[in-house]
Design a protein that fits this description.
disordered N terminus; mainly beta
Length: 820
Amino acid sequence: MKRILQLSFTALILFSANQAFSQNAQEKDSLSSKQNNLDEIIIVGSRNPSKSKLETPVPIDVINLAKIKNVTPQTSINDILTYMIPAFNSNRQSASDGTEHIDPASLRGLGPDQTLVLINGKRRHTTSLVNYQNTVGNGSVGTDLSAIPASAIKRIEVLRDGAAAQYGSDAIAGVINLVLKENSGLEANATYGQTSRNDGETTNLNLNYGHKLGDKGGFINLTAEFNNRENTNRSQNHNLIIFDQSAYDNYFAYDFAEAPAASRKIDDDLLAAKGLHRDDFNFQVGDAKIQNIQGFLNTAVPINENIEFYAAGGFNKKNGTGYGFRRLPSETGNVVPEIFPNGFQPELKSNILDLSLISGIKFKLSDWKLDFSNTYGSNDFKYEVNNTNNVSLGAASPTNFDAGSHSFMQNTINTDASRSFDSVLKGLNVAFGAEFRYENYQIEQGEPASYENGGAQSFPGFSPLNVVNESRNSFAVYADTELNITDKFLVSGALRFENYTDFGNTTNGKLSAKYKITDNFFVRGSASTGFRAPSLQQHYFNNIATDVVDGKLLNSGIFRNDSDVAKQLGIPELKEETSTNYSFGIVYSPIKKLSFTIDAYQIKIDNRIILTGNLGNDPYGDPIPELQAIFEQYGAQTGRFFTNAINTTTKGIDFVADYNLDLGGGNLGISVLYNYNKNTVDKTLNNIPAIFAGQEDVYYGPQERSLIESNTPLHKGTLALNYGVNKFNFLLRNTYFGEVTRNGFPFGIEQEHRGKIVTDLSVAYKIIPQMQLILGANNLFDVFPDKQVYENSYYNVFKYAPVQMGTTGAYYFARISYRL
């Protein structure tokens, strides 16, 4: 029924808009421009600076963010890409430590660390956070796209093809290039919204100002943005009664909503006699509270006709509050009753500072173009645990703890040279360069009370044993060429050699081609090898944290790959992931304003790095004494390790159709987007130590396997309609999130979540030429994933899994925009 309503609603909007404005002429400054943007020059994927996205031999998506940002319901880069690129997915996680504060993202179902992010074509640093709470991207380290203000970005280029031979490590799934604004003028936006459940309020304020510098193309562009998102609560029942009906002095998790009315009244009376109320036992499950304060700069200053200085970068100050599992009063090993007689739910607060600066000089030397640059980036993540206790300290325990921090710094020195030779066949472009990169990763300890004798409940702080200060260098040389053999046939190739101080050398190549069958129809394809260096975080991250292991809260350790316990168990040293990537596609553009592309691809990754399951129990959840005795020496009952344990194969198809037409005095843009993506993990594991023989389902089990194979939609598609006429603009977008399957083994069971459609709608009105008012909704019909079965819901607390469209539900917003 919902799908019928959605399709009917689409037709109604188009019909109403056409009837209401068919007699009006479109103004020159309409919100939807007639200009075809299919020919916009792109940066990513080629060092030939003259290619549009339809002329490249590999698939590239271009989102003109400066044009659509005001009318789309989403405000962060992760959310915008999720709803505009079917091969991209990002979900907010709950009760997952640091992962609640930096959303993991996936391109083509691969890990967050298998997509390279660029700013103005320069490598962006990753975060210092390791995702280790069995979420999407488990065991990976991604890039925090939310640290870059959307209001600073002109367009987003998404290269959907392996590009390690061109850009180095991480570019296995593809590359996301964020191109910053260069425009002059002033733009200010204010957005307020909240969910249909009166939570998750968002406030976004941003200011962008650009000014020309001189008369030779110089400019400066500045952006300031403030974004505040309140938490949501999507627990099975916001008001859990926590009461043991057989012994009134003890408590346990009991779903009040499911109890008969008579029982509810009795329980309320019993609680009232103890001076309690069921509201005292709320369990927060949902999106964390996040606040960002951001500033960004983009500038270019011509020194003379042949030399230009440029710089870009900024800062992001992020504070977040997430929630751990509730500790119940009966859990005497977790709760100090003198401090929390009713139990407590811990809060994990983050204080994250992200800094970046790109600076460089471009030269013209005869027919050569030279580019020398330095790119610096750092991410510092501090933890504070509140509303909790350290049981070992008894009534003297603090309730707030400084739990320590981790940080990552990356500095890249790069030199590029390129030249075009028009006289070689139908045109040759040559580019080559060298790159030196330095990286440093640190973990700093928290205050003693946060880690001593089991530490703060929910998130024990980093101890002196966890402290890390490790660095590495890499050096690379590379070359790529593009040759137009004829007017119809283009061939390009790239070769890259790279040396890392921690694992050695790797050489990768890429060959791609495009052939025009007619002026409007051509085929394209590529073949490449790639690699991803194990991150310093995967080499050296270690901690002891409280985790759910076989349905119980236990201290579980993540141990360094070079630690004594790793050597004792025979865990092999980390090495690079290697990949092969093949794609073949067609492009058809019968008229200037209409284009179709379809691309099939296959990505094989060997020695993929994973984080093992919790070792120490057998596949049935029973303790293995000899293993637990080893881990207990380090204050844990179970242990996990990073290892090159698996090989994977990814196969898929991307389809993109764009059409712009004049309709009823206005302009209608239609986009149909679709992605089919299937990930498969080989059945045989790599290099499993002999001590874990027979424990393959623990070392890398059904839960970890399902996170890669089936936790992102097999099918995802979008139908977007953008109609601009006179002073109005209408955006209507239906996004289909296909089925996903989650396996909660060993704690839960396998469950399929059916595919769902999410509808976005916004209406913009130009009050005066400089000012617009926008009203709209994301997930207009309040669509959620299927409810979790009881076995996967942690005693009915987690009503929904954070898959597909997530658990926010319907979100309504109002925005006012001013441009001068």
